[in-house]
Design a protein that fits this description.
Strands 1, 2, 3, 4, 5, 6, 7, 8, 9, 10 and 11 form an 11-stranded mixed beta sheet that branches. The longest helix has 25 residues. The protein is of the alpha/beta class. Helix 3 links the parallel strand 9 and strand 10. The protein has a single domain, classed as 3-Layer(aba) Sandwich (Rossmann fold). 47% of the residues are buried. Helix 2 crosses helix 5. The chain is 26% helix and 24% strand. It is built from 5 helices and 11 strands. The structure holds hypoxanthine.
Length: 250
Amino acid sequence: MSGIAIIGGSGLTQLEGLDIVRREVVHTPYGEPSGPVTHGILHGREVVFLARHGYGHTIPPHKVNYRANIWALKSLGVERVVAVNSVGGISEDMAPGTLAIPDQIVDYTWGRAHTFFDGDGAPVTHVEFTYPYCGDLRRALIEAGREAGVPLRERGTYAATQGPRLETAAEIERLARDGCDMVGMTGMPEAALARELDLCYACCAVVVNWAAGRGPGDGRIPMTEIERWLREGMARVRRLLERLFGSFGD
Ligand code: HPA
């Protein structure tokens, strides 16, 4: 049993420095999670790791079984979840390579199984979601970033889009007008499902490209650059997570 989990996104299908203890296949009432859950030790602390897109990175954002993933973690006794998500940068200070700990979400996704409260005779339930991320875990991530010397944007609004295609320049203009600072495809419904199961959930976003129309030249997204920023950004995430885990008492 472990109290904390990491959900790794693109570029983080495995966690370097994690001493793997065992892998566990978890079945849930909502189907299969993205893969077996890895139990391990990171910086002296037990941790559960799950690769959101599968260990072979084969599951696209709109096909991730978010309900099964979150349910599986809850069923293992997880209480806190650090979600790592790659994003495109919309705001001027969201250049590729930047890490951000968002504090708000605008959800543009559709058609995803997005709730555990689906009726079926259960009372209608509306979860509180004014502040979608767990304040304590956000603060711990920000503090870990400071201590590890990893520069962080300490807040921001995450736009969750449907994917798998990237956005048009006009769509990004609209998201900017909506007040969004970064755009990704996997932040929702994951965050809301975590809230439904009362998990303390926060996101560490890694900017891997300028969002459509925001970058130099004609604003097209150079796919080759994404690989590079994924590698560099994830190296920073690992430093941050090591510090975070070092800081947790038992
Ligand atoms: N848009 C949506 N999702 C993303 C992007 C983007 O530009 N970059 C990484 N994930």
